[in-house]
Design brief:
Elements: H1 3-20, H2 26-45, E1 55-59, H3 64-81, E2 84-88, H4 94-102, E3 110-114, H5 115-122, E4 150-162, H6 163-166, H7 174-177, E5 187-190, H8 196-203, H9 216-226, E6 230-234, H10 237-245, E7 251-255, H11 256-265, E8 270-286, H12 294-303, H13 307-317, E9 320-321, H14 342-345, E10 349-350, H15 353-372
Parallel strand pairs: 1-2, 1-3, 5-6, 5-7, 8-10
Antiparallel strand pairs: 3-8, 4-7, 4-8, 4-9
Helix pairs in contact: 1-2, 3-13, 5-15, 8-9, 9-15, 10-11
Length: 373
Amino acid sequence: MKQNDRFTDDQLELLADKARQGKISRRKFTQLGMALLGATAVATRGAPVLAEDGQLVFVSWGGDAVDAYDDAYGKPFEEETGIRVRQDGSGPTEGAIQAQYESGSPSWDIVDADAFSAETLGKKGMIEPIDYDVVDKSKMREGFGWEYSASTYFFSYIIAYDAAKFGDNPPTTMADFFDIEKFPGKRSMYKWGAGMWEALLMGDGVAQADLYPLDLVRAHNKLKDFKQHVISFWGNGAESQTLMLNGEASMALIWSTRARLLEQDTDGDVSFTWQDGIISPGAMAVIKGNPGGAEAAMKFIASAQDPEKQLVMFDMLSQGPANPAADELIPEDQRRYNPVAPDNFALQVPLDVAWYEENYGPALDEYLAIVSA
């Protein structure tokens, strides 16, 4: 997070404290918060939201996700329970979640979190354990329910490529991504590391089954050697799309959700492969001491397991459903975009949440040092 972003978040928290204490109205809090963020940030992150009694605040990563979560989960939950769910798109980073807890009076209830971040914070006492008497573990894919977070969707880090350029000889493996002689052109990779270590190692000849624990020395040596061919390390999905749309990169390691948009928007001039993709779970977690209460939050997570609701998320955001029962609801001509469809899943490797929980912070520091060198 940039320094000015930290400052803005601090100012928002000060305003929130005043609103909680009754020194300013909730309406004034929203007005001042939007003024602090500016029009561009509000469009991306959504307006700041302050929890109210009898309501839940769900925090996502902004943009189209705000409307999607409201349509798929928020509005139906209110109809079912009478509990309003307010959408906040300000981004539940690990640091932001921790700051909410440490404030002593969090304004967030449920967060769309990285599972490894939720597990890390949960073991520090900042996240509620998932109540599996309410949340149904049988409605999750095996191995994707954790102590402090419940899987709610999937996406993958996969290769998108210039199909018009490579024609009848497209890349088919992660080794091809790193083969500049056979597949010339600039590349783009993810700035924040996740999925990239696996890609680097597979590009260096490591088999999927042998990836974990990740050999960071080998991965980072590969990155140092390859970095000259990377035109940009993208930090958000829109940037990853732009690099492929304007031809700056002939290949990119991007989210599968963006790969679908690229293929559709270019009528196939940009395509993708699932081979050697890294499947990553999205999860919901509940902040300990949340204003709406753990009981209501767990009921919300349980309601989001409905396969029909997860189908809405697939249609709107291309999220792979966490509930396997949703797979068959996806129209047959759209199943190739589902990262966890059986045929697609079989080509990929699941991201090891336990490894990331223990190693992500230091690994990212080393990765970023190479990226910025």
